[in-house]
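Hi support team,

I submitted a single chain yesterday and got back a structure, but I'm not sure I'm reading the C-alpha cell output correctly. Could someone confirm the output below corresponds to the sequence I sent? I've pasted both exactly as they appear in my results page.

Thanks,
R.
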Amino acid sequence: MSQSSPRVLSIQSHVVHGYVGNKSAVFPLQVLGFEVDAINTVQFSTHTGYKTIKGTVLKNEEMEEIVEGLIANDVHYYTHFLTGYSRSADSMKQVAEIIKKLRKKNPKLIYVCDPVMGDDGKMYVPEDLLPVIRDIIVPLADIITPNQFEAELLTGLKMKSVEDALRVTKAFHDKGVKTVVLSSTELGDGSKMIGLASTSERCFKIEIPKVDSTFTGTGDLFAALFLAWSHKTNNDVKLTLEKTIATMQSIVTDTYDNARKSQATGALSPAMRELRLVQNKDVIINPTIKINAVEIKPH
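Hi R., thanks for writing in. Yes, this is the structure output for that exact sequence:
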C-alpha cells in the first residue's frame, strides 16, 4: 500500500443529518488531502441538541471486531489517529489499546485527542470518564485540544489568567503531550475568546471574536483542522493555530449570517445552526488569515 498520502483513523460519533463528530471532521480532512477511515461510535438521526434523538450505539465488541478486521487485512497503517466525544469509560480504555496496536504498525503515529467532557462548568459525560482520559489517554496523546473547562478538569488547575494557562499547558507537557491547544478560554472579554497553542518550546495566543450564537460540532471541526494544518505546516504551531482559527471563523460567521437571512431575530433552531461545511469547501482548502497569533512568554 502506498504511504504517500497522510492517513487518519477517526473514531467519533456519526449523525445522519448535520455536522458533529465524524460528519464534522471527515470532510474537511478529505478536502485537505487526507485519506480518512472512520469508525462511528454512534449512529444517530441528529445531534443531541434536537428534541428527538433516534439511533444506535456501537458496542465495544463491535468496535474491536472492526479494528481486528483492519489488522487482519493489513490496512491499519495510519499517520494520524483522531478521537472526540465518548460516553463510556470502557470504550476509551479500548481506544488506548487500539492506539498501542496502531503504533506497532507505525511507531510515528500522531494521536490527536479532543477530550470532550463538558463546557461552561458542567460535565456532559459520566464522571468515570475523567480518570480514564486523564490517566490513560492523555499520556498517549501527541496533540490535545481541550476547552478551558476540560483543561482544568484534566490538570486540576484553575485558569484565571494567561499565567495560569501556561501552568496548565506545562502540566500537559509534563505528561508527555507535545502540543497543547486550549481551543477556547474565558480569558478574553465580552467580545473575544482567547485560544492558546503551546509546545514545550513556545506558546502562542490568539484572540477570537465571539459570534452571537452557539454551534455544535465546532470542537470536532477544530481538532480535525488542527491535525491537518499541523501536518501541512510541518508542526509550525503558530501558523497551524492561525489557519485553524481563520477557517473556523469563516465557517461560523457564514453559518450565522446565512441563518439570520431567514430569521432576523430570536433564538436560532438547531437545524439553522448546522455548520455550513460543504458551502465553505474553498475556505477549508485555502483559509485567509485575518487574525495573527502572538507569542507569549512566562513572566
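A quick pointer for reading it: The chain has a mean pLDDT of 94. Let us know if anything else looks off.

Best,
Support desk
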